[in-house]
Design goal:
Layout: E1 4-15, E2 18-29, E3 33-37, H1 44-51, E4 59-64, E5 68-69, H2 75-80, E6 83-86, H3 98-107, H4 112-117, H5 122-134, H6 150-163, E7 168-172, H7 180-193, E8 198-202, H8 206-212, E9 216-220, E10 223-228, H9 230-235, H10 237-244
Helix pairs in contact: 3-6, 5-6, 7-8
Bound molecules: adenosine-5'-diphosphate (ADP).
Adenosine-5'-diphosphate binds at residues 15, 20, 38, 40-46.
Length: 246
C-alpha cells in the first residue's frame, strides 16, 4: 500500500534453536512515529538488527518504501536506501566541535580531512543550520562534543543521523540517562522530526513514551503482544503480566 513505509511480514530469527523473533509482523506508515516497548529479551534489538540488515532473518520479508525486500540487501545498501539507526551509546568525536561532527556526518563518504577543509556551499550551510536548530544545538555549535551534557550528546547523534537524510530513523533508548527536562525536550524534538520522516523508537522509559503520544507496540518472545495507544497497551492484562512476571 502507498501509505506503508515499512512492512515486516512473518519474520522469524532463531539463535541456536531459540526463536528471538517469532513470526513477527509489523506495519509502519509513512510519517508515523512508533514506540516499541517490551521486557528484556523481547526481541527489540534483534528486530532493529533485521530491519537494518545487520542480522538476516531465517524466514519472512521486510518491505521498505514499496517493493524492496530489505532481507535481500546488506547493511550498507539498506543505509543508502534511507534507513538510519542511532544506537544507545554515543559515537561522536569527543574532541571535535558540534559543528565539525555534523560537518563530517554531512560529508558522508568524504575523508575526514576532506570534510573539514571542503569549501561549503550555501546549501550545505543551510542544511547544517537547520539540523542544529532541529536538535537544539545552535548555541552549542562551537562547543567540543566532550563538553556537551549527556542529553546534548544524544541530540548531536540525532543531528548526525539527520545529516544522512533518512526516510526512516531507528532510535534505541534515546533518553537513557537524560534529565527530566532533556527527556521532555527529546519527545518534542522527535515529534518535529516525525512531521517529515518516519521514526521507530525503542524505549523503556514510560514517561517518555507517554510524552511521545504515539502508537505503541509491545513485543514479547519475538512477537507482537499488544499494539495501540499507551493507555490501552499498558492496561492489557497480558502486558501487565509480562512486566510483573519478571
Ligand atoms: P531485547 O532487545 O528486547 O532485550 P534482544 O533482541 O536483544 O531483546 O534478544 C532477544 C533474545 O534473543 C534474547 O533471549 C537474546 O538472548 C537472544 N539473542 C539476541 N541476539 C543473540 C545472538 N547473537 N546470539 C544468541 N542469542 C541472541
Amino acid at each position: 500500500r502507498r501509505d506503508t513505509l515499512l512492512y515486516l511480514d512473518g519474520v522469524t530469527k532463531s539463535f541456536d534453536g531459540f526463536k528471538a523473533i517469532d513470526n513477527l509482523s509489523l506495519v509502519l506508515q509513512r510519517g508515523e512515529m512508533r514506540a516499541i516497548i517490551g521486557p528484556n529479551g523481547a526481541g527489540k534489538t534483534t528486530m532493529m538488527d533485521i530491519i537494518t540488515g545487520k542480522t538476516r532473518p531465517d524466514a519472512g520479508e521486510v518491505y521498505f518504501a514499496g517493493e524492496t525486500d530489505l532481507t535481500r540487501h546488506d547493511e550498507a545498501a539498506i543505509a543508502s536506501m534511507g534507513i538510519g539507526r542511532k544506537f544507545q551509546k554515543p559515537t561522536v568525536f569527543e574532541s571535535h566541535t558540534v559543528e565539525d561532527n555534523l560537518r563530517l556526518a554531512l560529508a558522508g563518504s568524504r575523508s575526514v580531512f576532506g570534510a573539514l577543509f571542503h569549501r561549503r556551499t550555501s546549501d550545505e550551510r543551510r542544511r547544517r543550520d537547520d539540523i542544529l536548530t532541529a536538535t537544539r544545538l545552535t548555541h552549542r555549535r562551537n562547543a567540543r562534543a566532550a563538553d556537551l551534557s549527556h542529553g546534548q550528546k544524544q541530540w548531536l547523534e540525532i543531528a548526525m543521523l539527520l545529516a544522512q537524510d533518512p526516510q526512516l530513523l531507528l532510535i534505541d533508548e534515546p533518553v537513557a540517562g537524560m534529565t527530566d527536562a532533556e527527556t521532555e525536550e527529546t519527545a518534542r524534538l522527535l515529534g518535529e522530526i516525525a512531521e517529515t520522516r518516519s521514526v521507530v523508537v525503542v524505549e523503556h522509559d514510560m514517561h517518555f513514551v507517554r510524552a511521545l503520544g504515539v502508537k505503541v507496540t509491545c513485543l514479547h518472545e519475538g512477537a507482537v503482544l499488544a499494539e495501540g495507544p499507551l493507555d490501552a497497551v499498558s492496561a492489557d492484562p497480558r502486558v501487565v503480566e509480562v512486566y510483573l512476571g519478571r
